[in-house]
Design a protein that fits this description.
Blueprint (H helix, E strand, L loop, with lengths): L12 H10 L3 H7 L2 E2 L2 H11 L6 E5 L5 H7 L4 E6 L4 H8 L7 E5 L7 H10 L11 E5 L5 H11 L5 E7 H8 L9 H7 L2 E9 L4 E2 L6 E8 L12 H14 L7 H8 L4 H14 L12 H15 L2
Parallel strand pairs: 2-3, 2-5, 3-4, 5-6
Antiparallel strand pairs: 1-8, 6-9, 7-9
Helix pairs in contact: 1-2, 10-11, 10-13, 12-13
Length: 310
């Protein structure tokens, strides 16, 4: 590190330019990507994530390793996923100090599986006592940020939390409450797997070059959805809740009855059961999806699945 008081040696405009120029990437990346160049923001990400020395962090989109270097100083292991084939050589350079605790998977983050993670762990020479990653900490590529967060929380039950930088509008959807303009199917589905515990804004001036959007770093901790009796929902029940959530928001600003009819069009068996589903869930079909809370969507999902199993 350049200074013991810094979180990352690359979180300045000059350091970022130097790395890009050294690898001949200045033109290509300065025009197409936005690099975080404020070390104070890096520090706030680290603080919000609650890292400790035993944590095994999964990171998506490490870029030149700005955040990665700070993570490696404060946790046990980091495994990063990067799609761009030009960046592994950059990361081998910038993160050479931590080669024994850093592993890179060159692939599309949306294709990542637990088997990929396990194979990368073995290839890195990490013994069997090193478990799967327990925290996702990333400055996510904005084009896939919302998808990655929900997908990983749904599929990777070993992740205890996600501390991610996303576009402000995406964070607003993650934190939205019933009745608000940003509350929708994504909000409800995410709430089945996680709860918001903290966030802070990041202005465009903290990046090189500055983006045209506002950003937010948000932390989500894993949450387990329960039915009215306190029993944790099964995988199939969660899928059913997500199905009914998509149906409720299929035609926004229409009643649940009309939106669900549109969503299940062509599925006569489900259409015929809709009145019973609403009745069993004790949800008025004349309401709109954006007025329902988490508990009511759970009841709709359980009613939907109950009819399927008959």
């Amino acid at each position: 590190m350049d200074s013991p008081d810094r979180f990352s040696p690359y979180a300045t405009p000059s350091a970022t330019r130097e790395v890009l120029e050294r690898h001949g990437l200045y033109t290509k990346y300065a025009l197409g990507q936005n690099f975080l160049v404020n070390d104070g923001v890096i520090g706030k990400i680290i603080e919000l994530s609650g890292l400790c020395g035993d944590d095994f962090v999964l990171e998506v989109g490490p870029g030149i390793g700005t955040l990665t270097a700070a993570l490696l100083c404060r946790c046990g292991r980091v495994m990063s996923v990067e799609k761009d084939g030009d960046l592994p050589n950059v990361l081998a350079d910038t993160l050479s100090t931590w080669r024994d605790s850093f592993s890179l998977l060159q692939m599309d983050a949306l294709d990542l599986t637990s088997n990929d993670i396990d194979q990368a762990r073995v290839a890195a020479g990490w013994d069997d006592t090193v478990a799967f990653p327990n925290k996702l900490v990333s400055n996510l590529p904005y084009a896939v940020a919302a998808t990655v967060v929900l997908d990983y929380l749904q599929r990777f039950d070993f992740l205890e939390s996600a501390t991610v930088m996303v576009q402000k509008e995406v964070a607003d959807r993650m934190m939205a409450r019933p009745g608000s303009k940003t509350y929708g199917a994504y909000t409800v589905k995410l709430s089945m797997y996680a709860r918001h515990v903290g966030h802070f804004p990041v202005a465009p001036g903290n990046f090189f070059p500055p983006p045209r959007v506002e950003s937010t770093v948000i932390r989500l901790d894993r949450a387990v959805a329960h039915d009215a009796s306190g029993r944790a929902l099964t995988f199939e029940e969660l899928k059913a809740v997500c199905t009914m959530t998509d149906a409720a928001f299929a035609t926004r600003r229409k009643t649940l009855a009309n939106s669900c009819k549109n969503y299940f069009s062509g599925q006569g068996d489900v259409l015929g059961r809709l009145p019973r589903i609403f009745e069993q869930a004790q949800v008025d079909p004349r309401r709109r999806g954006e007025t329902l809370d988490r508990r009511e969507f759970i009841e709709l999902g359980l009613a939907y699945l109950g009819g399927e199993q008959c």
